[in-house]
Input
Amino acid sequence: MKPRISMITLAVRDMAESVRFYEQGLGLPRMNSDPNVAFFRLNGSWLGLYGREALAEDVGIPAAGNGFSGFTLAHNLESEDEVDAMMAQALEAGARLVKPAQKVFWGGYSGYFSDPDGHLWEVAHNPHFWIGPRDG
Output
């Protein structure tokens, strides 16, 4: 097996608001698709947005739920300045600040925001580790 995550699908309450946040606010490149789903091409994977009720039905579980979801998504950048810029862009696009970017115990620099549906994103610079385009 070749380990990878090909796509992450987020359940969203308001497709138009979420598409605006990711496409216009964060500048992710949107692919053409059915209006009931949105796909964004990332570096080596896709981000999908799908209606909360419809995704829960597809999985076969109730759509009700709140609180900490038990996972976060991370966007790693090459510098603290890039982290600050990405956090500012997300907040300008309508994200909610969860934890301001700051130096952290593991030697890096990171902060958290939540998207319009409360999905948690960490924006980080890790001077000890890099996953990104230069990996090929």
In short: The mean pLDDT is 88. The domain at 73-135 is CATH 3.10.180.10 (2,3-Dihydroxybiphenyl 1,2-Dioxygenase; domain 1).
